[in-house]
Amino acid sequence: MKLVLKFILFFFAFSFYAQSEEASQEKYTYKLEKLILENKKDSTAYYLEKIVPSDYKSILEKILNRTEISYADSYQFFSSVANRNTISYEQVSKFIDDFIKEPKDKTINEDYFKIKWDQVYKLRDEVSIDLASEKQKELENYVLRFKDSDIKVQKAKLKLRTHSLVLFQIEQDVENGKKIALESLKKARELKDKELQIIFLYHLSDFLLLERKLQEYIDVSEESLKLEAELPEKTPYYYATTQHLIDAYIYKGGNNERVNFLIEELYNNSLTRIQTYSLYLKLISFSEPSSNVKNEILNKFEVSDVNELMEKFKILGKDLNPNDFFHILNEGSRALEVNKFYTEALDYKEKAIVLTRKIYSEDLSTSLANYKTDQAVKLKEKEIVHEKEQTKLYGVIALLAIILFIISLLVILKVKKQSKELSEKNKLVEQTLKEKELLVKEVHHRVKNNFQIVSSLLELQSRGIEDEKALELANEGKNRVKSMALIHQKLYQNESGLVDFDEYIKLLIKELSSLYASENKINTSISSEGMMFDVDTAIPLGLIINEIITNSYKYAFRNNKENNLSISINKEKSNDYKLTIEDNGPGLSDNFDVKKAKSLGLRLINRLVKQLHGSLKQTNKEGAKFEILFKDNNARQLVN
Questions:
Q1: If both were cysteines, with which of 109, 318, 320, 638 could 103 make a disulfide (CB 3.0 to 4.6 Å apart)?
Q2: Could you state, in order of their start, the residue ranges of all structural domains in the chain?
Q3: Looking at the domain 498-640, which fold is it?
Q4: From which residue to which does any coiled coil extend (predicted)?
Q5: How far apart are CA 608 and CA 602, in angstroms?
Q6: Start-to-end C-alpha separation, the chain
Q7: How many other CB atoms are there within 10 angstroms of residue 358's CB atom?
Q8: Is the entire prediction scored with pTM above 0.70?
Q9: 120 and 139 in contact (C-beta within 8 Å)?
């Protein structure tokens, strides 16, 4: 009996020692990787000596001493450091640029391609779309050196499509994005490449989500996990797909056993555990009050209530990138609200809003524009005559937009600072909200003034333009800026924080009639009484109305007849809204498809209708008639 007891004690002691030694080795390896990235050679000897001999230690020594090393070994190092949450990927990317040189082989080098493709992937997700697009272009030029007859080149070109798919997803361009995803998936199946199939199933699911096809989204994600099970190693998409599938099942309801299995698999992996905190919070928000889900999660993390759990997750998730940390704040706010921690929920919601403004700034729009410009250059051999004028104009607009964003951000920071300095902590939430409403009105007032400055600068810029086409583009841009300025003017003047569209349309008609219809008599009918919309609905809706009415003034009205223009907004039985604009002009040609229009104005209308989760119908009957069904902000949030 004593012998058995000694053996058991020895076994536990040995297991503890082995685990401790493994943790130490991981700690030394991590520290050495960090020092290598920081080019601190003098400090590496101690940690290098502590690491036991292994293939990976040999790789670290080669990289440290800059001796000859294969691309495959280099890939192993960069994959390891890229998954360290406490290491900035921007630092990793700079090291790649310095260390990895383009091979001069006559055939494509798959390991070099993997390093650079992963660099594009991580830069896009964690650093900057601009930098990712720059590396994407370099990688495309490398792959174009080789012939398509090589199956490795075909697979590489397929992988290169993922960057465009992400940009289509950001723009919510479902039509083009889904088309490319399906075409690429078909090609991947023909090549019988399971990893490529997983990649394009993942991107296809993004567009199914935008289409709100929940069950198809789940089926595609489950298909991807089945393919993962057939591979010797999991792809980088495995954990992201698993996370998306958990989200879908929680939203759908039921499937608790599958959800628990998937979330535990993520939690038990040290690299993805940090990603599960927002999922646990979401699970609490959507669980039935009668279920024991909340208590099981609270017990798992040894806390007494949801507020204490949120505080713990906030500390555990401090090393997350801003986008993932936003999900913890947002889901935590919802879980706190469900469990009646209203003050704390409001506080976390405000923090989430401030963080998301930093993530989705003007830089994103600028990055998308830069990438599109690069793609267009590949297709064009000659530039149009007035390109220089347009470039100058777009430069002025971009610069002024950035200035506008910075001013708005400073005002928001000022609002936050003033809120923190309030000495009376026991004031009612209602009083706090009223004070913030006044500050928001101040923001709208300043934004309106800044739009007017932009409009005035565009007016001055357009005076020096002689090209008629460029001048027309400048005037259209000026009108669009004015239409947005009117929105913010109405928000500033209205106590409710909503835009009265009956007043807005009348003011817009007044502005446009002074520009386009000074000699034409136009009978205008407006029916939009009581139509009030928030800023997220008002701006795209105002731009749509501006574009359609502008077209009517430009093309529909003549001096030799009675000109009629009718505008109405009504709420349908489905709780959607219907915008109808019609004139008695010559209308559009019968074979004209408004959804495939190439003009900037009509393309803008199509994009804005999608933004409002709406649909567009154009007919010709005694003139042009546009009918647009759309959802307000509350309805769009329910869909999302």
A1: 109
A2: 498-640
A3: Heat Shock Protein 90 (3.30.565)
A4: none
A5: 10
A6: 64
A7: 11
A8: no
A9: yes
